[in-house]
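Progress narrative, Year 2. Work on Fe2+-dicitrate sensor, membrane component from plant metagenome advanced from sequence curation to structure prediction during this period.
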Amino acid sequence: MLPAQRAVLSAMAQDEQARALDQAMDWMVRLNSGRAQARDHAAFARWRESSPAHDAAWTRLQERLGQSLRAIEQLDSRLPGQDARIGNLLRQPMRRSALKALLAAVGVGTGAWLADRVVPLGTLTADLQTRTGQRRAFALADGSQLALNARSAVDVDVAAATRQAVLREGDVVARVSPAAERPFLLMARHVSVVARQGRFLVSQGEARTRVFALAESLQLRAAAGGERELLPGRGVTVDALGRWQPVTGSATGAEWEQGYLSASPLPLGEVVAALRRYTPAVLRMSPEAAALPVQASLPLDDVDRALRALVDTQPITVRRYSPWWITLDTQRGA
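Result:
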């Protein structure tokens, strides 16, 4: 056989393997969707038996999935809570995007402990989601749009009678299409936002949630009780106790849509928390450094450049122990 013929046959075999693996993923999602019936299992058996490539692809997929899950289980000693999060994931119907993300999480060559830094494991089953370093806008059926910051996730329910979304993690800018009889409800950890039209930001943290009315008024309902109206151009934070705090400064908090962070000012700890969404590296810092006030405009898509800018303008040091582990400290503490 001529070399050219061998190359053609090799390419054809690779294409067949790729198609078979793609079909195997579709079958895994279908069989784990929670809606599979006996005829689906019978059709799968026929597919698997119809070609050695199909059987090999299914076996390979199961092996890769098992490796990914075992690696994720190892995260619990380094990133507490991952066992519970992966358990929740496996109890929910599987989506193709979640399966692909799970398989990719350990295949990035950075070690199992970085899996959650690349793909947020706790939100793999969300309707809308972004990974580390990814921003994305999603169009909804009613004409509204949700723009998600990196490492953010939202569940949506837009139907004839309802328009609502749940912010599971991160930041979202909502552009609400007018519908007088169907106000848009966005629920976050500490507060719910009701809008009939306009544009607003919701940024969810562990301790508090920030809301900014970018256009049109909003009705806010704290999870702990209490309501208020938020006028256009105003912002507020709400904590678990229902305490309201006006947002000061010129930054809206939605500057990430344009790819930068506006600190005017912010504690360095909050600045670094924003940068963590854009790098798989672990960014650690001392409490003394976290308390430093920062006033700057920093690029989100180039974390190395942002860190250099912080070193140039703040009394801090940045040390890199590997591409995946970076520490920040005050110059005095270094």
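The chain has nine helices and 18 strands. The chain has three domains: 12-125, 130-246, 259-330.
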